[in-house]
Each structure stands twice: as C-alpha cells, then as structure tokens.
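Z., the sequence and structure:
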Amino acid sequence: MSELTFLALVGPDYEVGLAAERVQRIVAELDWSGAAPIDVAALVPALAGRAAPRVLAVERNDGGVLALRTTAAIAVRTVEAAALLRLPRIVTRGARWIRGVVFAAEAAPLVVVDPEIISEELAGGEPAAGRYSLEELW
C-alpha cells in the first residue's frame, strides 16, 4: 500500500496537512527574507497557536514559493493513501484550498489543503486569506 506524508499544523480538534514533499524549508519568521507570508491563522483561526512564528516555504507547480506563516505546532503525519477522502466542491462551499480529509481512530482528523489553490487565488486578486475559515464549513 502506498503512503502519503504531510506536515500537519496542529489545532485543538483537528490538524491541517500540507504534502511534506512540497515544503522546501521551515524557518523562524525573523530569518525569512522572501515575500510576505500568508498567515495560516487567517485561513484557519483554530491554528492560532502559541509557538514561535515560523514560515513554511512551499513549492508551487511553477517553481515559485508560497510562504505560509504559522504559530501552530508542526507534526509529521503519514497515512495510507486510501485513507484520504477527497471532498467534492459542494462540501467545501467554495473553499477550494481544502482537498480532502483523513479520519483515523488513533489521531485527530487531518484536513488536507492544496497550497497551489491558495497561490492561484492570490494571483487572481481573490483574498484567499481571511475569506473562508474551516470553522464556517462545519
């Protein structure tokens, strides 16, 4: 069976996962010298944590970098590929950056997001950050 590995941003009731192979590096916010990062807590308020601010440099399909700022705890989460339940657009109510969810008996639900969609919405002038929150969907 094939597995998927995610960097999971840990919230109190669920985790938000980014494909680990797309995260190029994680640096302290003070050490970040690239474009202004998107605050993940603006997308998912439950991820406003108490950890020191860090920036995740996430590789985009075009070779560019999407910078995401987080204060949430970060964990590595590996799941069976078959466990990823892809969500249709009607379920996400327009929050296109949510791709699916993984439920596991021994762990918090993992909501899988697509940073490429966040980047596309920003390029199109749509305010991806702050426009939708996961809490509005459930």
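Residues 127-133 have pLDDT under 50 and may be disordered. The CA atoms of residues 43 and 136 lie 11 Å apart.

Let me know what you think.
H.
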